[in-house]
Specification:
By secondary structure, this protein is of the alpha/beta class. β10 and β11 form a beta hairpin. α5 runs parallel beside α11, α6 packs across α10 and α11 packs across α13. The longest helix has about 40 residues. Bound molecules: pyridoxal-5'-phosphate (PLP). The site of pyridoxal-5'-phosphate has 14 residues, from α6.
Length: about 475
C-alpha cells in the first residue's frame, strides 16, 4: 500500500468514528428530550394545572445576555426543562377547561416528533411527496367526516383564525369574479362593494380576518343574536349584490349554532357566498348523536375549523375548506419559474404560507388512530362530561346560563364579584383551570371540555374543587 493509500484509509477511519460520535451524541440528545418529555407528561395528571408561581418567577433565569461561546446541547435542554416546565400551564393535561383547547393524543405527539425529524417544508408535492400525500389523504377523510361536498379543496393552516382568513379570501375571490372583477390582480380600490353579513356573536378573529382582507372590521351588517348567541333568522337581511355571509357553528361561550340549515340555502339562493366558522362546532358533524346541531353546514361554500382544539393534535393546526377549490387556489397560489405548476395538488396552493411545517402529519395520525368511531366517541364523551358539570353546578344552586348542547358550560356564582372571587380561587387551587367571560351582560365562568385525556373522575374532582371554591368565596 502506498503512503497516500495509508493516509486516505486513516482519514476514512477518522470520518467514520466522527460520524459514529455524531450519531451517538444525537441519540443521547433526543433520548434526553424524550425522557424529559415523558417525565413532564407523566406528572401532568397530579400537578397543579396553573403554572407554579415560583416557576414563573424563576423564568428570570433565562434572561441573560447572549454569550459569545456555544452552550452544550444537553445544557440547553436542561435549561428549557428545569426553568420552563414548572412555569407551563397544564394545557395538555386532563383538567384544563379554559378557552377551547384540546390536549394532544399520544399518537399525535409521537407523529409530531417524527414529522419534526423529517423537517419537510410541505409546499410542493414533488419536493415533499410523503407529507403532501398524507395531507391530501387526511383532507379527503375530513371532507368525508364533515359530510362536505365532493371536490371540496382545503389547506392546513395555523388555526381557525387563519382558516377563516383563507376561506374568506376564497369567498372574496368568488363573489368579485362573478361581478367581473379580479381582486388578486387589481385589489379592492374601485372594486364592486361586497356586503358582509355576520352575527352579533361572531368570533373576533373572524372580524380580524375581514379587516386583513380589506373588507373592514366595521363595514359589516350585524344580525342580532338570541339568548344562546344564535343569529336570529327572523332578523336576517335581504341579500343584494356581491355578498359574503358568515355563519357560526359553535359559539365560543355557549357552544350554540347559528340556524345554518335555514340561512345557508336562503343566502346561497340569493347569490351569496356562505362561510361557516366551525372552529370546534364542526366536529359535532362527526357524531351521530350530535350531528343535528350542525345540520346544514354542508350547504355552505367554505368552512374553517381547528384540529388543535377537538381533534386533539398539538398546536398549531387549523383547516380551511372551500367547496370551490379553484377559488381558494386563485386566492392563495403563487407561481414562479422555480415553483412550476405540476398538475397535482400543491399544498401551498391552499395556504397563505409558501413554507410551513407538515401539520397534516398529526392530523392524519389522529384520524388513522381513532377512526370515525373514535373521533365520535371523543366528542360525545366531552359533551357528556360538560353536561355533568352543568348538572353538578346547577344542583349546588349555581346559575348555568347556557343550554349545554355541546361541550361548553357558562356558569355564574351569584353576582359579578363573587363569580370573580370563585374563578380566582378555582385557578389558585390548581385542581383544574377555567377562565372568566361575560355572557348576556353577566360575569360568568366558561368551562370547555375538549380533551381526550379528561376522564369522568377528572370531572368529579374538578366539580368538587369548583364547589369548594364557590363555597369559600360565598
Ligand atoms: C368560533 C371560533 N372561531 C375562531 C377561533 C379562533 O381559533 P384559533 O385560536 O385556533 O385561531 C375560535 C377560538 O376559540 C373560535 O371559537
Amino acid at each position: 500500500m502506498s503512503e497516500v493509500d495509508v493516509q486516505s484509509l486513516a482519514i476514512e477511519r477518522d470520518e467514520a468514528s466522527a460520524d459514529a460520535r455524531g450519531h451517538a451524541a444525537r441519540h443521547a440528545l433526543l433520548a434526553d428530550a424524550a425522557s424529559r418529555a415523558q417525565r413532564y407528561l407523566d406528572a401532568l395528571p397530579e400537578r397543579a394545572v396553573r403554572p407554579d408561581p415560583d416557576g414563573v418567577r424563576g423564568l428570570a433565569a433565562w434572561d441573560t445576555p447572549l454569550g459569545d461561546e456555544p452552550t452544550d446541547a444537553h445544557e440547553v435542554l436542561r435549561l428549557l426543562d428545569e426553568i420552563g416546565s414548572p412555569a407551563t400551564m397544564a394545557m395538555a393535561g386532563p383538567r384544563f377547561f379554559g378557552f377551547v383547547i384540546g390536549g394532544s393524543l399520544p399518537v399525535t405527539v409521537a407523529a409530531g416528533w417524527l414529522a419534526t425529524a423529517w423537517d419537510q417544508n410541505t409546499g410542493l408535492a414533488a419536493v415533499t411527496p410523503a407529507t403532501a400525500e398524507l395531507e391530501r389523504i387526511a383532507l379527503g377523510w375530513l371532507v368525508d367526516l364533515f359530510d362536505l361536498p365532493p371536490g371540496t379543496g382545503g389547506g392546513f393552516v395555523t388555526g381557525a383564525t387563519v382558516a377563516n382568513l383563507t376561506a374568506l379570501a376564497a369567498g372574496r375571490h368568488a363573489v368579485l369574479r362573478r361581478a367581473g372583477w379580479d381582486v388578486e390582480a387589481d385589489g379592492l380600490f374601485g372594486a364592486p362593494p361586497i356586503t358582509v353579513v355576520v352575527g352579533e356573536e361572531v368570533h373576533p378573529t373572524l372580524v380580524k380576518s375581514l379587516g386583513v382582507l380589506g373588507l373592514g372590521r366595521n363595514r359589516v351588517v350585524t344580525v342580532p343574536a338570541d339568548r344562546q348567541g344564535r343569529m336570529r333568522a327572523d332578523a336576517f337581511p335581504r341579500i343584494d349584490g356581491p355578498t359574503i355571509v358568515c355563519l357560526q357553528a359553535g359559539n365560543v361561550n355557549s357552544g350554540a349554532f347559528d340556524p345554518i340549515a335555514e340561512l345557508a340555502p336562503r343566502a346561497r339562493d340569493a347569490g351569496a357566498w356562505v362561510h361557516v366558522d366551525g372552529a370546534f362546532g364542526l366536529w359535532a358533524k362527526v357524531s351521530p348523536a350530535l350531528r343535528a346541531l350542525a345540520d346544514g353546514v354542508e350547504l355552505a361554500d367554505s368552512w374553517a375549523t381547528d384540529a388543535h382544539k377537538w381533534l386533539n393534535v398539538p398546536y398549531d393546526s387549523g383547516l380551511a375548506f372551500s367547496r370551490d377549490a379553484d377559488a381558494m387556489r386563485a386566492a392563495m397560489a403563487v407561481r414562479a419559474a422555480y415553483l412550476p405548476a405540476t398538475g397535482v395538488r400543491e399544498p401551498s396552493d391552499f395556504t397563505p404560507e409558501l413554507s410551513r411545517r407538515a401539520r397534516g402529519v398529526e392530523v392524519w395520525a389522529a384520524l388513522r388512530a381513532l377512526g370515525r368511531r373514535g373521533v365520535a366517541e371523543m366528542i360525545e364523551r366531552n359533551c357528556r362530561q360538560a353536561r355533568r358539570f352543568a348538572t353538578g353546578l346547577a344542583a349546588a344552586g349555581h346559575q348555568v346560563l347556557n343550554e349545554v348542547a355541546l361541550n361548553q358550560v357558562v356558569v355564574a356564582f351569584g353576582d359579578a364579584e363573587r363569580t370573580r372571587r370563585t374563578i380566582a380561587a378555582i385557578q389558585e387551587d390548581g385542581t383544574c383551570w377555567a377562565g372568566p367571560t361575560t355572557w348576556q351582560g353577566r360575569a360568568a365562568m366558561r368551562i370547555s371540555v375538549s380533551s381526550w385525556a379528561t376522564t369522568d373522575d377528572d370531572v368529579e374532582r374538578s366539580l368538587e374543587a369548583m364547589l369548594r371554591a364557590a363555597a369559600a368565596a360565598g
